[in-house]
Design goal:
38% helix, seven-stranded mixed β-sheet, alpha/beta, 7 helices
C-alpha cells in the first residue's frame, strides 16, 4: 500500500450519508474527498464553529456533513445551478439537519447576504474564482473566522508546468496565483496534502 493511501484510509470515517454519496458517485457529481472532509469537520469541531458559509453546494453532501460536525452548527450554502440546488434541497429535507441548513440559489459572484456573519467559510466552487470569492465574502466573517479552500491542487494540474490546453493552463495559473497571494498575505496559512489539497486560512 502506498503511504498516501494508508494516510487516506486513516483519515476516512464511516459514511454518514451513504445515499447522497452513492448518488454523487453514480452521477459523477464532484464532492469533497473523504479524507479532506474528515479534516474539515475536525477543524469545525476544534474551532467550535456555529455559523458556516459554504460557496458551492452541489447536491448538499458537504453541507450535511458540516451540519453534523457539532451541536448547534448552522450552514448557509450557495449554489448557482438550479438542478443541483433542487437536488440538494431534497437531500437536506430528508435528513435530520433540515433546520440547520439554509440553501441559496444564486451566483456566488453576485449574492448579497445582508448583515449575516459567519465564523467559518468553506470555498468549493469554480477554482478560477477562489480569489474573487475570498475577497467578496471575507466581509461577512467574524474577526476570528477560519477559512478553508478545497481543491487547491486541481487534481495535480497545479504542479504541471507542461499544460498544453489553453483553458487548463489559464485555470492552473489562476489557482497558483491565489495560492501564492494567500501565502504572501498577512493571514496564517497551511497547505494540506489531503484529498485534492486544502488551504487553511486564519
Amino acid at each position: 500500500m502506498e503511504l498516501i493511501n494508508y494516510v487516506k484510509d486513516l483519515n476516512t470515517n464511516e459514511e454518514l450519508f451513504p445515499a447522497v454519496h452513492r448518488y454523487a458517485v453514480e452521477n459523477r457529481v464532484p464532492i469533497i474527498d473523504s479524507d479532506a472532509l474528515n479534516v474539515v469537520k475536525q477543524y469545525i469541531a476544534i474551532k467550535d464553529a456555529k455559523n458556516i458559509l459554504e460557496i458551492g453546494t452541489a447536491i448538499g453532501y458537504s453541507a450535511l456533513h458540516f451540519a453534523s460536525a457539532g451541536q448547534g452548527v448552522h450552514v448557509t450554502t450557495i449554489e448557482k445551478d438550479e438542478a443541483s440546488h433542487e437536488t440538494a434541497r431534497e437531500n437536506i429535507s430528508e435528513s435530520d439537519y433540515s433546520s440547520n441548513i439554509k440553501t441559496i440559489l444564486a451566483d456566488a459572484k453576485e449574492a448579497d447576504l445582508g448583515n449575516a456573519q459567519f465564523d467559518f467559510l468553506f470555498i468549493d466552487a469554480s477554482k478560477g474564482n477562489n480569489q474573487l470569492f475570498f475577497d467578496k465574502y471575507k466581509k461577512y466573517l467574524t474577526e476570528d473566522a477560519l477559512i478553508i479552500v478545497d481543491n487547491i491542487f486541481v487534481r495535480g494540474l497545479i504542479a504541471d508546468d507542461n499544460v498544453e490546453n489553453k483553458n487548463k493552463r489559464k485555470l492552473r495559473d489562476k489557482v497558483r496565483a491565489f495560492n501564492q497571494s494567500m501565502k504572501d498575505s498577512e493571514y496564517t496559512t497551511s497547505f494540506l496534502n489531503v484529498g485534492d489539497g486544502l488551504l487553511v486560512i486564519y
